[in-house]
Amino acid sequence: MDFTLTEERQMLQDGLRRMLADKVDPKAVARGDTAWSTETWEALAEMGVIGALFSEDDGGFGGAGFDLMVVFEEMGRAGAPEPLMETLIAGGLIAELGSDAQKAHLDAVIGGAVQLAFAHSEPGARFDLERVATEARQDGDGWILTGRKSVVANGGEADYIVVSARVSGNTGDRDGLALFLVPKGTEGLDLRDYPLTGGGRGAEIAMEDMRLPADALLGEAGHAFPAIERANARAVAAQTAEALGLMERIKDLTADYLQQRTQFDKPLIKFQALAFRMADVLIEIEQARSAVINLCGHLDADRETRELHVSATKQLVGETAKLVVEESIQMHGGIGITQEYDLAHFARRLTMVEHRFGDALFHLGRFSRLRMA
Amino acid sequence: MDLSYSEKHEAFRKDLRTFLDEKLPKRLSDKVRLGQRLTKEDMEEWHAILQTRNWLAGHWPEEYGGSGWDAVERHIFEEETTRANAPRILPFGIMMLGPVLMKFGSEDQKAHWLPRILNGTDWWCQGYSEPGAGSDLAALKTTAERDGDHYVVNGQKTWTTLAQYADHIFCLVRTGKDGKKQEGISFLLIDMDDPGIEVRPIYLIDGGAEVNEVWFKDVRVPVENLVGEENQGWTIAKYLLTHERTNIAGVGFATQALENLKRIAGLEHQAGKPLIEDPLFAAEIARLEIQLMAMATTNLRVVSAAAEGNAPGAESSMLKVKGTVIRQELNDLTRRACGPYAMPFVSEALEAGSNVEPVGPDYAAPVSGKYFNNRKLSIYGGSNEVQKQIIAKMKLGA
What we know:
The complex is a heterodimer.
Chain A: H1 7-23, H2 26-31, H3 38-46, H4 65-78, H5 84-97, H6 100-103, H7 106-110, E1 116-119, E2 135-139, E3 142-149, E4 160-166, E5 177-183, E6 189-195, E7 201-212, E8 217-222, H8 225-260, E9 262-263, E10 266-267, H9 272-296, H10 303-332, H11 342-352, H12 360-372
Parallel strand pairs in A: 1-4
Antiparallel strand pairs in A: 2-3, 3-7, 4-5, 5-8, 6-7, 9-10
Helix pairs in contact in A: 1-3, 1-4, 4-8, 4-9, 5-8, 8-9, 8-10, 8-11, 9-10, 10-11, 10-12
Chain B: H1 7-23, H2 26-33, H3 40-51, H4 71-83, H5 91-104, H6 107-118, E1 124-127, E2 143-147, E3 150-161, E4 168-174, E5 185-191, E6 197-202, E7 211-222, E8 226-227, H7 233-245, H8 251-267, E9 269-270, E10 273-274, H9 279-307, H10 314-337, H11 367-373, H12 384-396
Helix pairs in contact in B: 1-4, 4-8, 5-6, 5-7, 8-9, 8-10, 9-10, 10-11, 10-12
Domain Acyl-CoA oxidase/dehydrogenase middle (chain B): 125-219
Protein name (chain B): Acyl-CoA dehydrogenase FadE17
Organism (chain B): Palleronia abyssalis
């Protein structure tokens, strides 16, 4: 057992924390002034942060669960809206399934020159990974795709979008899924992009007889589900680590506020009713940290073990996120729901963790089903 | 024990329903239903419609232009208007200042100000909180110094709801510096057009600007605008806060939110089935519905006791805590029901008449903003911590 970070990871954490503290302005994100900053993105690439998401075989120098944890916790602590998550998911799928020609893009991805997105979730699919209605049919050598994708993070900015579609079976089947690498501006792909509540941008995508060449297919047609589920597990690890960073930041803000704000002639922290609630917040954040460690340490385990940890961690972190957001706002009072105060951005971003990859209720149900199976 | 309504009350409910069917403009109820932002004109329009029946301030005595409603009639009014998605009545003139003037105002003040509240001449806002005086309201620092026939007001108020629309503000100001801090406070009526007043918007977590900072620099207020005695303001403030807490349970709002939640959970799907059929999700809805059913009766019990002349004390604080928590939990579950479509933040789509379409189903557009915005419920009107202190003090001698 060893719960310390390796020296390399410690250095990555320190450098990343300093860089993001310098570059990210939570107030600007809260106001919606910027989707994300190309300057920050270039700095992430330069520091090797994008590379830390990929294994050495794929041109990176990391890619393990604890690399994700270090990177995304710092992204959370800063409230950074840069679309690193989309690079992790889509880049990971390219790395796992791509042909040599497709994998050749990864150099530019790791260098920060190419932006990615993953278009998988559909209207009505909610959090069910297998509910894909978008249809891909073979047309000579190539493919024709028709369907809709919803809330595609970074869709509007991506140079390549990894799109999932069904080549056989019914909506809801695990078999019959395929992935395609679709370049920006492909004819037949209609995109509406918009701001997201926690920062960054999303897009609705409609595909109407969108033609793709044969070499757009990523991996084997009809058998993409295991890779999608694996990518999802890595995404949940990254997202819960980000949530952890957000919780740490919110906790610090709230603790400072309780020490500085005076009512009835004493600092708020001297009111036991508030101090005890803050102590509860501290306890639950430590539980959340353990849950994230559990998942990051089991990303490469067998499927059953890994997925059990996905739901356990996502459930616990989701519940903790609600507690931390609501208690921190309440203990701040009115200032806690003011856009010009940093907490607004962090609270929104942390709350939105529950609206992607499944919320606490979804994973509570999923965990109990997996346990009973 | 008898849980039924009297014939008189049933007749009132029927009359009210017919009125709402006929007179509530669909344009307004659509906005409320879809969570769109109401304009100043929308609110004024609805007030005027209600006043055709003397229902705008139905609980005011008839001599002042009300209908002399009892507590049960007020309850029915709240229940039916929220069920019909009517805009809520702005509380500042009608629920807050009106009762204060009736109890503490001079005959001249009543004759001058009360009709103007009802006919929409004046739009009031509330100048209570200050940057250093939130839960500890008596710590307020805005000063009013006597200078001949005027008070000269200096200081800053904050969290002033809809001050951008208001032409008048009632304020707690410091007129005395000796003794306990509660003893040097006065209640003053101030014209927002007076020189030296500046209103600055505060943007909230949902992107809206419903609250403001109000700054006062050497604002001259005629002494006849003092309500009650000088340094009697704390008594008035406490009286007003009790009135503010009447109907604070928000049973109507909660019922409306529960119906909306069920509707959305019936339209959203998980694993190919309506979300409302998911046992875990259904249990969460049920838990809140059970709470709400009990709270509706708690509310009526308090209301009935008040009708018999017992001033609500700790009970109104209990209703405030329970009512706000239930509403917040309903908001929480409603945003969850929308899943990924609670993420898009298209603020323009919440402005009625904008050409910007919401992303995803229309019911999803306001849910995140509403969840965040309604965190205010447990903060304003005396935070829930202050309410618990009141309960502990009154019931337990804490």
